[in-house]
């Protein structure tokens, strides 16, 4: 008797991750430029495959993250990243406006000596860009501290606002 295993996702952890990473890098390099990750997100299943594509690209077993419980388990299983609270997370996944303010207020902003030890807030709604940037600017981070933000839509559109970008 043969046991056949099937894969839930067809996302290639090497090649597809590299393609998504290059698109995220392009979005970070040119704040406000929209790139699309739909072709890679379509290789994943679930309610938010776009978020999973970004998570599988950016997270590994050496970083921590915070997300809602349903997505949190899936991300932890796929990336081996550590689940944690918002205050100590390297990556924070936000799904709605109610959690946006709390996420931006509690996100790590790095230190003057180590500004790169800040959090990246990944927001699954591009319509929240004005509110998110306003909330970020209200934090009055001391240069070069701050948080990076990545916005993703359900259609796979992605754009980024790096921590030092002034809008």
CATH class type: Alpha Beta
Count of DSSP-assigned helices: 6
Number of strands: 7
Q: What class would the helix/strand composition place it in? A: alpha/beta
Per the CATH scheme, the topology name is Rossmann fold
Radius of gyration: 16 Å
In summary, what is this structure?
This protein is α/β, with parallel strands linked by helices and 167 residues long. Helix content is 36%, strand content 15%. The longest helix is centred in the N-terminal third of the chain and has 15 residues.
How does this model look, in words?
With 167 residues, this protein is of the alpha/beta class. Helices cover 36% and strands 15% of the residues. It contains 6 helices and 7 strands, in the order H-E-H-H-E-H-E-E-H-E-H-E-E. Helix 1 (15-29) crosses helix 3 (49-58). The protein is globular and about 45 Å long.
Secondary structure layout plus pairing:
Elements: H1 15-29, E1 35-36, H2 38-41, H3 49-58, E2 64-66, H4 69-79, E3 82-83, E4 91-94, H5 97-106, E5 120-123, H6 129-138, E6 148-152, E7 157-161
Parallel strand pairs: 2-3, 2-4, 4-5, 5-6
Antiparallel strand pairs: 1-7, 6-7
Helix pairs in contact: 1-3
Labels describing this entry:
167 residues; Rossmann fold; seven-stranded mixed β-sheet; 6 helices; 7 strands
